[in-house]
Design a protein that fits this description.
It comes from Ferroglobus placidus (strain DSM 10642 / AEDII12DO). InterPro entries: ClpP/crotonase-like_dom_sf (IPR029045), Enoyl-CoA_hyd/isom_CS (IPR018376), Enoyl-CoA_hydra/iso (IPR001753). Keywords: Isomerase. The chain has about 250 residues and is an alpha/beta fold. The protein has a single domain, classed as 2-enoyl-CoA Hydratase, Chain A, domain 1 (Alpha-Beta Complex), CATH 3.90.226.10. Helices cover about 50% and strands about 20% of the residues.
């Protein structure tokens, strides 16, 4: 299993463990879906983190996905987008405990959580898709726009990575902690939202409903655009260069 589940004081801690740097591949997506579903009814909330202390996630598993044909790749991207939407609309509180670099798809997973706490020690976060010749999916762009339109513009247009301190200043994350206290503070945040479960679920559903509807309406177009850019000549060239990072 590429996701380890531990329950602490009623809070489900999901630790991604898909290999060195936690690349996002079909196995991780399916295991995350199963893990989220398995704890949805019983846990008071979720903390999403990584077993790799250097990388929360490096993003899509380029060395594996580069060999996929278009149809198989489309199915994977659709599945990843739906997983992100599932996390975003999870009817319980969610906190991303970003304990290492959160790159591209890794940053997207963090953005889909209600709160994002990040380790202060040398970790970077950002969406560098544009530098790889790719598009940024609709959901993370929409989440960033709700933080601040100018921040959203600069993050997706620039494709840069930010330190924890800079990400906090921009509002991309909600707190910075030492690696020793990161998960503990994340659990505390979930527990601090100890409201009646049905009330929290109703409030969150109302807060996320419009974005969910927008994402579902644009899903196939989003998948088509990302796939087209992935298989473009420029996209393939840049992705093959990026494989050196894995």
């Amino acid at each position: 299993m590429s996701v380890e589940v531990e329950v602490v004081d009623g809070v489900a801690i999901l630790k991604m463990n898909s290999g060195k740097k936690n690349p996002i591949n079909p196995e991780l997506v399916e295991d995350l879906k199963r893990a989220v579903e398995s704890v949805k009814s019983e846990a008071s909330g979720i903390v999403l983190t990584s077993k790799d202390e250097r990388f929360f996630s490096i993003g899509l598993d380029v060395p594996k996905l580069i060999d996929y044909d278009k149809q198989l790749f489309k199915e994977f991207i659709r599945s990843f987008n739906l997983l992100c939407l599932e996390i975003y609309t999870m009817p319980k509180p969610t906190v991303a405990a970003v304990n290492g670099h959160a790159i591209a798809g890794g940053c997207i997973l963090a953005l889909c959580c209600d709160y994002r706490f990040m380790v202060k020690e040398k970790a970077l976060i950002g969406l560098n898709e544009i530098k790889l010749g790719l598009s940024v999916p609709y959901l993370p762009q929409r989440i960033l726009q709700m933080i601040d339109e100018r921040v959203a513009r600069d993050v997706v247009y620039g494709g840069d990575f930010y330190s924890a301190e800079k990400a906090l200043e921009l509002g991309i994350i909600d707190g910075v902690f030492s690696k020793e206290e990161l998960v503990e503070k994340s659990i505390e945040k979930v527990k601090s939202l100890n409201h009646p479960a049905e009330a929290f679920s109703a409030v969150k559903k109302n807060r996320t409903l419009k974005v969910k509807e927008e994402c579902l309406a644009l899903l196939e177009k989003d998948v088509e655009t990302f796939t087209s850019l992935w298989f473009s000549e420029e996209g393939q060239k840049r992705l093959k260069e990026a494989m050196r990072s894995f």
